[in-house]
C-alpha cells in the first residue's frame, strides 16, 4: 500500500530572525516521526499479503477456465472443478473458520462424510488424527485438520488444515470464483495463512486437447510421466502468477490425459500449480 505525505509550505522567516534551539529540536523530532511513519506504513500487513494471494489465485482461475473452455467437451462448465486450501493456524481460528463458513462438525467422535478422503489428505500433510467437517446436505465444502487433543485445546496450538471445495458439473465460473472469494475472505478474517490450488476434470474435446491447452498456456515442459495409459506433464507458464517448486524446478501447471475405464472417453485433468487429489476423481459420476 502506498502512502503519500502531503507537503506543506512554511512561512518564510525574516532574514534577520534565527530559529531557537528548542524550535529546531521540535522540527527535527517531527521530521523523524513523519519519516518513521512513512517507512512503517509501507510494510505490507498480513491482510495485504492475503489480499494479493487471493487476487493472484482468482486471476489464475480465470485463465485456466478460459483454456478449459477450448479443450473440454461442453466447455469449462462441463468439467468438475475443485479448489483446495492448505493452511496452518490455531485450533480456535480453524473452528471459527468452520463456523463462519457454516460447516458443522458431525456429532459423535468427529468422523463423518469425507473422512476417508480426509485421512488420505492429512497423510500427505504429515499424518495426525483427522477431524472431518462437512455439509451433509451439499457435500461440497469440507474441512479437515490434524486433531483436537487435550494439549492442543489447552494451549491452542497451531496445526495444519485442508479445505476442499468440489463443484458439481455445470457450475459456472461465477459460482466457482464466488466460492473462492468467500472462503478467502473468511480465511483473512481469522488471520489464517493458506496456499490455494485448483483443478478440473472433464472429457477431453478431442485426443489433442492436452497439446492444445499446453499451447494456449505457452507451457514450458519441466517434468513428464507416462505409464502406458496415463500421460502426465508438468509445465511452467509465464501467463500464470501462481508457482511452486517440484524437484528443484519452478512449475505452475500440471496436465494429465487418460482413457476413462467405463465410457472409453479420453479424460483431461489440469491443476494449478499442481493437480490435487486422484486423477480419476469424479470420472465415473
Strand order of the largest sheet: 2-3-4-1-5-11-10-7-6
The pLDDT mean sits at 75
- The assembly state of the depicted protein chains is single chain
Categorize the overall geometry.
globular
Helix content bin: 25-40%
Order of helices and strands: HHEHHEEHEHEHEEEEEE
Key terms:
11 strands, single chain, alpha+beta, 285 residues, disordered N terminus, 34% helix, two-stranded antiparallel ribbon, globular, nine-stranded antiparallel beta sheet
Map the helices and strands.
Elements: H1 21-41, H2 46-69, E1 80-90, H3 91-100, H4 115-124, E2 131-134, E3 141-145, H5 150-155, E4 158-166, H6 173-189, E5 193-203, H7 209-217, E6 220-226, E7 231-236, E8 244-246, E9 249-251, E10 253-259, E11 266-272
Helix pairs in contact: 2-6
Please sum up the structure shown.
By secondary structure, this protein is an alpha+beta fold. 34% of the residues lie in helices and 26% in strands.
